[in-house]
Every structure is written in C-alpha cells, then in structure tokens.
Amino acid sequence: MGRFEPVGRNERGQTYNWQMEEIVVTGGRQLKGSVAVLGAKNAVLKQMVAMLLAPGTHLLHNVPGILDVALMGRVLEHIGATCSFDGHALTVEVPDQLRPEAPLDLVRQMRASIVVLGPLLARGGVARVALPGGDDLGARPIDMHIDGLRKMGAQFELEHGMLIAGAPGGLVGTEIGLEFPSVGATENLLLGAVLANGETTVHNAAREPEIEDLAVFLVKMGARIQGAGTSTITVEGVEALQPTTHEFLADRLEAGTYAVAGAITGGEVRIERCIPDHLRMELRKLTDSGCIIERGDDWFSVIGPDRPGPVDFATLPFPGFHTDMQPQMVALLSVSSGTSVITENIYDARFRYAGELMRMGADITTEWQHAVIRGVEKLSGCPVIAPDIRAGASLVLAALRAEGETVVGDVHHIDRGYEDFVGRLQSLGAQLERRQAGAGT
Ligand code: UD1
Fold first, then answer.
1. Cβ neighbours of residue 68 under 8 Å, at least 6 residues apart?
2. Closest protein CA for atom 17 of ligand 1
3. Alpha-carbon gap, residue 61 to 142, rounded angstroms
C-alpha cells in the first residue's frame, strides 16, 4: 500500500503525488479482451472493521489495492491494530486493548469509517467517532445507525463534532425496524449485535451481497447470525469471537464498470472471477440497450452495439439497479439513439457530475432526483474533473468513446475504488495514460 502514501517514489524511483495526477484518454478504440475482478471494496472495508471484534491475527485474501483499503488500514492502526499487506493478502493483528476512536481527518476521507461504532461499543462499551457530515452525494445522515444502537442500550452525545458513545453495561439485544434498508446501518447493527447480550432482530435490513458476505465472515469468527441477505436478520449474541481467514466475494461494481467499458466502445469484453447474479438488474438494462450478454456462473461477456439504445431505470436497494452503477450507465446512455429517463432514489445529489459529461457534449437535464438524457451522436474530449469514485470512472468511460483527448483530473477519487484502472483498461486495448497534472501543458 506504499503507493497510497500521498507523496513518494514509485518503483522506478520517480517522485509522484497522487493528489495531483490526471488520466489522459484518447477515445475511439474498441475494447477487446478479458479482465478479472478483485474483492468487493464495500465488503472488504466492513470486514476490516469486523476484525476489531476479536483480538489475534486475521488474514484476508483477494483484497483490492485501492485507496479506501489503505485509508481503512489507517483507521484500524489509529485504533491500535497493525495491518500488513502482501500483494492481495492482508494480515491484521488486533490487540486486546483498543483505542476506541476514529478522528475527523480519517472519517472525512472515508465515511465508511462510521461502522467502527458498533464493534467498538461491543468490545469496550465506548466509542468516539467524528461525525462524517455530508459529501459529494448529498447530506448522508447516520440517524438510523444511532437510533438502532440506542435501542440496544447505547447513549450518544455530540461534543465538538465528535460523537461520544457509551454502553457501560454492554449492548443488549432487541428488535429494530429500519425506516429504509440502509447498508451502513444494517452493518453497524450487525457488528454491534454479534457480541451483545441476547438476541437482536433487524427488520427491513439491507439485502446487499456484501452484507451476506459480512455475515459469512462473522459466522466464521464464531457469531450466530440467521437471515443475512433477507430483510430480517437475527443475531444471537455470543461471549467472544475468534480471528479468522476469509476470501472476499468479487466486486460487482468493478465488474459492472468494465462491462460498460466494453458496451460504450462497441467492443467485446469478458469479465472473469465475478458473480453475474449480483448484477442481474444492471445486465438486464445493458441488454435492453442493445448489448449481447453471455454468462456462466463466475464470468460474463458483453458485446457492445454500434450505438446503444435508450433505457429508463431507477436506482433502488439490492436487487434493484445499484446507485453506484448509475453514473457509468448514464455515460453509456449519453451516446444512445434516443431519450432515457433515470430516477435516483438513494442519494439526493448524485447527478452533480452530469455537468462534466455535458462539457463533453452530452445532453442531460436534471431535476431533483431525475435525469433526462437525450442521446447525442458523439462526445468530444475536453478537460473534466472526477468528483467521486463512480462519477470519475464514468468520465473515463465516456472519454473512451469521445473524439480526441479527454483529461480527467482529481483521479485520486478513482483510486478509492479501482485498482490500476488505467492499466486494466490498457490491457483491453484502450489508449490512456496517467501523468502528473499539467504535464501536458
Ligand atoms: C453503502 C456503500 C455505497 C452505496 C450505498 C448504497 C459502502 C462503503 N458504501 O453506503 O457505495 O452507494 O451503500 O448501496 O459500503 N441514510 C439515512 N440515514 C442513515 C443511513 C443512511 O438517511 O442512518 C440514507 C443515506 O443518506 C442514503 C441512503 O440512506 O441516502 C442509503 O444509504 P446507505 O444504504 O446507508 O449507504 P452507505 O452504507 O452509506
């Protein structure tokens, strides 16, 4: 993870500063070939936190080399754990005594750090976590995390932007009904409930595959969980958990992004080591737009049409269309032969990147949670800025189709979720490179 020190020297001895890098794409190449998917970011981050529940040595395989994993490593180290990476393997030593704190500079960089609340409360009855605040996707409150943990006996106070949580007598199992199937709230409650006193039932729980994988991991550690992957999860608290070894499920968002890369270039891309069943809705929409999809149990391939057709969709919790695939799909539909209507139901500000696509010639109107995309015949390359992980990927995908050169700035956002995005697209035949910002001027 040395690559993710903000400033340093690369393998060739050259200095770099990843916060100042950009990706330069020359569009027009059809992508061809195959790409294998790594472990799911949104599973890895939560399971790194889950390890705090048991002192000892944990080993994780298939961990992607992405910035968010490095950031979560820093959160764990702040809490007292030691993380060491060896390729895609991660060993974490969790001590008996934890420092139950996640400071603002770390939580700001990665909101997922908020899931340390549940395990820290479960382990030591106290937690001090900076309140994350909003981000590029909207306000993103954590009221459901707090309400649920409160029902389990935790008390919260907000002091100088820090959430101070205490459960002196330990967390106690109870019935919790979530207003909305929040992924993070479901995970935080699950992580608190596994060591709680008695039985906890979470109703209207999120059903994402990453939650199921978290439950599999926790059960390997000795937890008693039933119903993960359904709307009702029941957890019977146990006295203690043990360290374990785990291999992550494939990242459906990485798989879906390379699928759109094939589709938008009219190419042919095979995605390997993934679970196509976790992308059912997204693959259905790609088919509706004119792609030919073939699939096996752990692979699928996409043949893109010369020009995609228009498609309407609405983002929804799993098994609906994933909000984290919305920007990539919008890039594809921006060059479709008709008009598409998209409804974003998860985040209140997820179309902010549309302005960057419009600089490339896309015709998009956004109104509150809706976007109307009138397909244009061609996009043209220009400088754009990656505002977040998926929107950053979407701009690179659009650039693969655009005429001429596109320069995507702020690419550290893309590093948060994609290992070697540039190298993997190059291996599929794309013409792009990464350089220090301004190197081409
Ligand atoms: C996780 C994923 C993120 C994905 C999202 C939805 C990680 C690290 N991130 O985010 O990539 O886009 O699931 O699939 O796994 N909400 C509240 N109150 C709460 C909790 C959530 O109002 O207490 C709202 C959020 O503001 C958001 C919506 O519910 O509008 C969904 O949030 P949630 O499912 O919790 O997403 P995250 O866990 O933050």
1. 41, 45, 110, 112, 416, 417
2. 141
3. 30
134 lines ligand 1 (CB under 6 A): no
**Residue span of the structural domain in which 383 resides:** 2-37+251-436
Distance CA 113, CA 221 (A): 21
The mean pLDDT value for 11-27 works out to 74
Tell me the three-class secondary structure of 3-58, residue by residue.
HHCCEEECCCCCEEEHHHEEEEEECCCCCEEEEECCECHHHHHHHHHHHHHCCEEE
Distance (angstroms) between ligand 1 centre and the Cα of 324 equals 11
Q: Which residue has the tokens 């390729």?
A: 87
CA of 183 to the centre of ligand 1 (A): 6
Of all residues in the chain, the percent with pLDDT exceeding 90 is 87
Question: What ligand 1 atom has the least distance to the C-alpha of 389?
Answer: 11
Same domain, 313 and 181: no
Q: Is 150 in the pocket of ligand 1 (CB under 6 A)?
A: no
Domain-located, residue 441:
no
- The verdict on 30 and 85 lying in the same domain is no
pTM higher than 0.90: yes
From 163, 183, 248, give the residue whose CB has the most ligand 1 atoms within 8 Å, as the site to mutate.
183
pLDDT on residue 224: 98
Residue 81 has pLDDT above 80, yes or no: yes
Residue nearest to atom 9 of ligand 1 (CA): 42
The phi and psi torsions of 310 (rounded to 5 degrees) equal: -75, 150
Please tell me the residue having the least CA distance from ligand 1 atom 39.
184
Q: What is the DSSP letter of 400?
A: H
| Spatial distance between the Cα atoms of 127 and 131, rounded to a whole number of angstroms | 12
Do 260 and 215 share a domain, yes or no?
no
